[in-house]
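S1.2 Input.
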Amino acid sequence: MKRPRSLLSTSLLVIALAAGQMGPGQPAHAVPAALPPVSPTPQSISRSGTDAVVTERVLVAADDRTDQGARDRLVRELRAHGAERVDVVAPDHAGPRGLLTVRLGPASRPDITAALGGTTVPGHAEGYALRVAADAPERQVALGGTDAPGQYYAVQTLRQLFVRTSDGGWSIAGARVSDHPSMPLRGTVEGFYGAPWTPAERLDQMDFYGDVKANTYVYAPKDDPYHRDKWRQPYPSDKLAELGGLIERANANHVAFTFAVSPGASICYSDPADRAALKAKLQAVHDLGARAFSIPLDDIDYTSWNCDGDRRAYGPPGRAAAARAQVDLLNDVQRTFVTSHPGTRPLQTVPTEYGDLADSAYKRTLRAALDPAVVVMWTGTDVVPPSITNAQADAASKLFGRKVFVWDNYPVNDFGATSGRLLLAPYDKREAGLSAHLNGIVANPMNQPHASKIAVFGAADFAWNDHGYDADTSWTRAMSHLAGGDEAAAAALRVFADLEHLAPTFGAAPWQEQAPELSLRTERFWAEWDAGRRTEALAALRTYAVTVAQAPTRIRDGSVQEGFVADADAWLDATELWGRAAVTMVDAVAARLTGDRDRSQALLVRSRDLQEQAGAVRVDPARNTWGKARTKVGDGVLDAFLVRADVMLELWDVAGGGENLALKGTATASSVEGDLDRLAARHVNDGSLVTRWSSGYGDDEWVEVRLATPARIAAVTLAWESACAVEYRIETSDDGVNWTPVATRRPPACGNDVIRLTSDRPVTHVRMRGVARATSWGYSLYEMAVYGAPAT
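S1.3 Output.
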């Protein structure tokens, strides 16, 4: 993956350029500074001229067609950026010369049209045009929207154009912007299992969505009993009041609060009383101000009926019959509830078959009979898709007979493979051009709302302008957003997020790699070490290890949002310990390199102690369904480096001491799940953490590596997938027939295990033999490494 420019260097570049911007009294030939970054990436942005200084008094020209939320945000931003007085005046008001005037309202308003100076006004919903003019007799900014949301988004862009002047004041970068969203629906669906977000967290999310120009929030928390299990029951008055406050905040940020009710597990589709109860539930929330609704029918049994009436109405249970029943319900709600409530958006649904491209009797029935107005959600080619392409989206649209709305299950972390993980990688591997095939994208966030902002920031950026989206650039900007513009804190966030980069799927391999920056640095270290440039290699890696160790303190002490710090608390604790363990290990190697064996041994013992402390850090209490779990920090990369360095020190005087001997060996296993080649034994020693071996469904299963040459083994490491062992043995053999147990382990959780061995006897085979499984599946290992030295 292409790495983003250093946050610190980017910040210094922007500051340096901003310091050189033209202002009053500067020569006309001065070169204007580069425009500051704007997110989401506008469709068109360019220099319009020099920057406009924010004067002590600013006039805002507005009228009754000016969006109230946009006006309020504009005034607030002007006051935060140097305006001591902001007066809201009529568009034809003639104020004193020299004052900055900001004109806000419909792009068709005559004064705004003139001030835009020919800037193209998009003919799209939620579009806007913006122009900063400092060279004209009247210093002014024009913000013209094609509608009320467009006005609001123009202000959100202006918010990012404030730059510091050389005298410490503020100006607005001389920009010309013509912009509109590529996708009509953008935002999130709170659709995870586990503890729902709190009211305060949801209110914060609404403000965040406004900032990133997301316009959709789907309220669908699986563990809200009134959303799913108790769907027939009205919300208690206190819960209704909470929802009312949330809807009000969403509306203020131009976010469509989409109320979802999921009745599929118990509804009798043909029962008028159940339909009435459903519509009454929707009506109660409509009365609070909601104008968007969803009826998800995902994660239910659709091959049996909940009542005898449905059998009589739709026939024997089955896919086609289930689709007929669901279509009957959805069409009824769309035609009798939605259309009878003016201003209500088309009904949304999640079909029971939501994550593939296979045609079926269920999809054929939906395609033929579902009202064309109903919006259908689709998760991609799997529950957690590793990618979404234009061809896939086009195929999905054909399957459902309409453009689909993607429910993107990233960065959600409510399934087993995400146990102990924050998912902080960029929003990536969604193909440019999807805007031609989709109604929109909503990301399903983590149980940790503030930590989810990194990925949601990217998802909103992509949905706004998929053709202009760059994952690395957006990821870097998301860190800066979380850090409030403090670039030192943002740089620390990026180091931390690199350690939480791995993104699992429901398939055999993660769809985002683990710790790509740290992996690059450790690979470079070993290459330099093997080439004999050992002092230089140690110095370079130590510098980064110190950065890792210090990142948590910088995140906690800087301007990073408090909610993110709270969400990441356990992982920050573990990161500091892992970082200190890495620094200490590097120092141990350095001491041994200079011949100070005693100091090296003492540091090695200290590093092991820090690693043990880091491995003991738990997420407790956990918000996720996976419960109390060990934190995963750079696993498979950071711990692998520490093991290799440890073994190298232990076998310092033995040739080849730190080598992973398994890479040159041959793997075999007792069985392979489903005889699938993608789960074959050879993947357990291929050096990749994106492939894995998986056994059949028995306790007494094993995988072994026959070494290329007899060796003395110092350590074995196992990188477990979520189907791990609660007890297993490590066994060795010198002939592949007679085996000797050398270690028994009972790990407290699935993760990376390090088993140190002390025998000096040369062996030719090493294997993991399962004793008891943690799940009903078999055993699944991403990688088994064998460290030691050849016997000759």
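S1.4 Remarks. The chain has 20 helices and 29 strands.
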